[in-house]
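Hi everyone, sorry if this is the wrong subforum. Our group has a chain we'd like a structural model of before ordering constructs, and none of us has done structure prediction before. Sequence below.
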Amino acid sequence: MTSSLITGADGFVGRHLRAHLLAHGDEVFGVDRECDVTDEASVRAVFEETRPDVIYHLAALTHVGESWKFAAEYTRVNVVGTQRVLKAARDVVPESTVIVVSTSDVYGVVREVDLPLTEEFRVAPQSPYATSKVEAEHVAREAWRRFDQRVIIARPFSHVGPGQSVNFFVPAIASRLLEARREGRGEIVVGDLSPRRDLSDVRDVVRAYALMAEYAAPGEIYHVASGRDVAMAEIADFLVSLIAPGTNLVLDPSLVRPLEVPVSRGSAEKVHAATGWRGEIALEQTLRDVVASLENPD
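Answer:
Right subforum, don't worry. Here is the predicted structure as C-alpha cells:
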C-alpha cells in the first residue's frame, strides 16, 4: 500500500485527489491550514508523523487577481512553502517522490503560432502568482540537481469541476446565472470573455498527478492539458443555455484583470508518453457537473 501526503488537502484539487487516491487503495494523509507550510518545524512534524511514500504539494495561494494585492504573501506561501516541504521530505523520507504543482500561467502572453505550448517553451510570468510559481519550480529543480531528490513538476493548464470556488470563472458565471434565475433577473455581470483557455476536468487532472508519481521521471516538468482551447464566451453561452436561456451578459470593468493572457493551449504529449494519461471527461459534462454541484451542494 502506498502512503500519500497531500498538502492543501482541503482545497478544490486536494479533495478530488484524496478521493482518487483512496479509491485506488492508498493510505492518504492530508494537511491544510492547520499546518503552515512556511513553518519548518510544523512541516517536519507532519512528515515525522506520516512518513509518506508520495507527497503531492498542492498547498498554495492560487487566485491570479488577488495576487496583485498580496504579492509578498504569494511569494511566502508558494515559494518558501515549497522549500519547506522539499526539505522535510529530504530529511525525513529521502526515498519519497514529491509532486510539485505549478501552473501554465508561467508562460504569460503567447502567440497563436507558439501553440500548442510544450514544456520547453520559455517562461514569462505576467502576475505575482505566476512569478511565485516560476520561483517554486526553480526551488524544485534545484532540489533535484543538488540533492538528487525525486521531485517531479506538474504544470497544469486551467482545470474546473465540482466544488471549485465561485472566485473562479466557471462556478462564478454559473452561480450568478442560478441566482438570476431564482430572482427573475434577465442579466448578469461578467468580465472579459475573449480569452481562450485549455480546460481539463479536475478529476482527470488528479488522475494525471497520481500517474506521474508512479511513472514520471524525476527532475522533469510535465503539462496536464487537454490540447484544446475554448473561448470563455463559449463557456458562458453554454452555461446560459443550460441554466437560464436568454440571460444577457453585461461587462463589468471591475471584473477585468489588470493583464489578461489572450490564449493558452498546451501539449500533453510528454505526460502521455511517460504515463499513458489522456483527459477522458468531456468539457460539456464537466460544466453540467459544476452546475449540479452548485444546485445541490453537499
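For your construct planning: The radius of gyration is 19 Å. Residues 71-92 form the longest helix (22 residues).
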